[in-house]
Write a structure and sequence with these properties.
Length: 481
């Protein structure tokens, strides 16, 4: 490859500092951010698609020399404007997030200082510890330690690595060497559990998918029977993973009963609350999470229903040694101050940004009560949609109402030869209409629309518009028979 010569180019033209233009760039960026925030307050009537000029820009080759910073910022803003932003109030697909304003500001600050939370980092390390304590207090989980990670997938992997080491001491050193072991979760657990089993050498086929009840929650009796049967066969149970808010329908597994099963068999209980756990902090829903404090570890994604920008998940544990037992290393270039652990000794990652700052600042600026209220509002919106949709002819809802903020619904059309195709088409039509954004999901072999409310900007009017559009767009769909 031909490497271009830089000799003869002045220092100023190759500098990586914005120099005298710093404030101008910051002011301009602030204007773009303020415009975006104002735009997110209300839903826009259609999605913006990339212009021909933008598409050209996005195919341009690597620039060898820089361009004007204001132009660069405008180009970046144009790309973001033509993208699907979860921060918009009518983004109801998958499990969205909101890009909380103070969270975005915290990210700007954190990234500017670019502190590495792998090692002792002064006040930043204390702040991370405080944010973990505050999060545990909010949820009602007595976390003695924990860390912020890049997502629920990594938080679940982190917790299961600790569980594996407790069940099979020294497996981190020896490998599993043919030891048969298993993890247990509901049929509707998130697939990050399978991925963790793959990565940790447990094996995906050793994830026991336990039957669910009529409310789609893991059946504790079926769980106990499966653990007992495995133990009789010499298979070591590594962990039970309870889901506190399944991705498909928002079902919360019965944590107390599952904790009883785990206590009886000495098995690690992990709660995957990546989506739903923040609802443990809201009084109307907190009872659903009774028993949470008995879990050995929990996952919660603050970038979902705590509204802060991605990526900000947390894994919390009751016994700090369980994490250091599996992650601590003594390396020549990572000194330890006496017995003290480095942050990296309890995480999978090494270089780690200061993810805690956005949650910490959000709690400081808004207070926990504002979060409890916003979560409760999303749950009320789900209940409102469920009741309104259930009262209409031609729209089916699940027999059991929403436990949290997901409301699967589908159109039923008498005489329609293929209702799945009808609902899939309806979902595509809604997405291309652009006023709302929903995703489809398959439940018991049927195609459903699966709106999920996790945005503090969503209003009741947004929810009612969704229902209206489902009716009007549905009436225009083909596959009517
Ligand atoms: C229950 C549950 N667990 C884990 C995850 C994975 O989280 P992340 O996307 O942050 O890796 C999700 C994502 O939706 C989830 O719903």
């Amino acid at each position: 490859m031909l490497v271009p010569k830089t000799a003869g180019i002045s220092e100023a033209s190759t500098s990586l500092s914005l120099g005298e233009r710093r404030l101008e760039a910051l002011d301009h960026a602030a204007g773009l951010v303020a415009r975006a925030w104002a735009e997110f307050d209300q839903a826009r009537e259609t999605e913006v698609t990339p212009s021909a000029q933008l598409l050209d820009e996005l195919r341009a080759p690597l620039p060898e020399h820089g361009d004007d910073v204001i132009k660069g910022l405008n180009d970046a803003s144009a790309v973001l404007d033509a993208s699907l932003a979860q921060a918009r109030p009518r983004y109801f697909a998958y499990i969205g997030s909101s890009g909380l304003e103070v969270g975005a500001l915290a990210d700007l600050l954190a990234h500017s200082y670019d502190i590495n939370l792998a090692l002792e980092a002064g006040a930043a390390s204390l702040l991370e510890a405080q944010a973990i304590t505050w999060l545990g207090d909010f949820l009602g989980y007595p976390a003695l330690t924990g860390s912020f990670t890049s997502g629920g997938t990594v938080s679940n992997l982190t917790a299961l690595a600790a569980a594996r080491e407790r069940a099979l001491p020294r497996s981190r050193a020896n490998g599993l060497s043919g030891v048969r072991c298993a993890v247990y979760c509901s049929q509707e657990a998130h697939y990050s559990i399978k991925r963790a089993a793959e990565v940790l050498g447990i094996g995906r086929d050793w994830v026991r998918a336990i039957a669910i009840d009529a409310e789609r929650r893991m059946d504790p009796i079926a769980l106990a029977e499966r653990i007992d049967a495995d133990m009789r066969e010499g298979i070591t149970p590594i962990a039970v993973i309870a889901t506190a808010g399944t991705t498909l329908t928002g079902a919360v597994d019965p944590l107390n009963e599952l904790a009883d099963v785990c206590a009886r068999s000495g098995v690690w209980l992990h709660v995957d609350g990546a989506y739903g756990l923040p609802a443990a902090g809201a009084s109307a829903t907190s009872d659903l999470f009774a028993g949470l404090a008995r879990a050995d570890s929990v996952t919660v994604d603050c970038h979902k229903w705590m509204f802060v920008p991605k990526a900000c998940s947390a894994v919390l544990v009751r016994d700090p040694r369980t994490l250091s037992n599996v992650f601590a290393h003594d390396e020549a270039y990572v000194p330890h101050a006496g017995e003290a652990l480095n942050a990296v000794d309890i995480t999978l990652e090494y270089s780690r940004p200061m993810r805690a700052l956005k949650l910490w600042l959000a709690f400081k600026v808004h207070g926990a009560a504002a979060f409890r209220a916003a979560i409760a509002r999303n749950c009320e919106q789900a209940r409102d949609l469920y009741e309104r949709a259930g009262a209409l002819d031609g729209i089916a809802v699940l027999a059991s109402g929403p436990q949290l903020s997901i409301v699967p619904l589908r159109r039923t059309v008498p005489g329609c030869p293929d209702e799945n195709a009808h609902n899939a088409e309806l979902c595509t039509r809604l997405q291309s209409d652009g006023r709302v954004y929903v995703s489809p999901a398959t439940i018991d072999g049927e195609v459903w629309l699966r709106p999920c409310f996790t945005n503090f900007r969503t209003t009741s009017d947004d929810v009612h518009l969704l229902l209206g559009l489902i009716e009007s767009e549905g009436a225009d769909c083909s596959h009517h028979g």
